């Protein structure tokens, strides 16, 4: 991925999202502006309904803002066609959601290999890369188990491997530990943090977990439609 000026990998300018609600408009957020530098691990915190997931969808070219612009990889995301947006997601981004969205009829290995198969890589090569990534997340022994045979923590590890097999530079994670018990959540966050370092990722993590947010480089708080940067160490709860 190319960089924006001065090492900024992502630039958000004046972002607004409005939903039509009956006869009136619901402004989810307005005039959000921030930049993210290469290599940063950025937490986005805020109450449920504050717009964290919608913001990540816009940053990942899965949704469009009502106003404002997002620039990533020297692209203005709002100007992309549907095909170009799909290509951008496939080549530049890795996604991890609160729900793993693994395909239940496929094995862990097949799920992780899927993004490379969709790119047209031969099955043997794609599954070889998938095996390496399952080793990276500590699940090589579970590669031939179907998704439904895995625990919640294992499923999320498989989802993380699938997100990173395309070697993206930008990882978007929406409550990646939200469905896990505290011990499992901690191990998954530790894994995300290690892979962030080892693969020189830039990571944006929407989370309710202030303990995790405090371990990120920067924290942006989204509340009442506005965004402010807060010092990680000031988060409590």
CATH fold call = Rossmann fold
Biggest sheet, spatial arrangement of strands: 6-7-8-3-9-10
Beta-strand content bin: 25-35%
Largest sheet: 6 strands, mixed
Fourth CATH level, the homologous superfamily: P-loop containing nucleotide triphosphate hydrolases
Please tally the β strands and state the result.
10
Q: Indicate the low-confidence ranges by residue numbers.
A: 1-5
Number of helices: 7
Arithmetic mean pLDDT? 88
Radius of gyration: 18 Å
Under the CATH scheme, which architecture would be assigned? 3-Layer(aba) Sandwich
SSE sequence, one letter per element: EEEHEEHEHHHEHEHEE
Bulk shape: globular
Folded structure, characterized:
The chain has helices spanning 52-59, 82-92, 108-118, 123-136, 152-164, 182-198, 210-213, and strands at residues 8-21, 24-37, 41-45, 67-72, 75-76, 93-96, 170-174, 202-206, 218-223, 226-230. The protein is α/β, with parallel strands linked by helices and 237 residues long. It has a single domain (5-231), classed as Rossmann fold, CATH 3.40.50.300. It has a six-stranded mixed sheet. The protein has a four-stranded antiparallel sheet with strand order 2-1-4-5, with helices on one face. The chain starts with 7 loop residues before the first strand and ends in a 7-residue tail after the last strand.
Notable traits:
237 residues; alpha/beta; Rossmann fold; six-stranded mixed β-sheet; four-stranded antiparallel β-sheet; 7 helices; globular; disordered N terminus
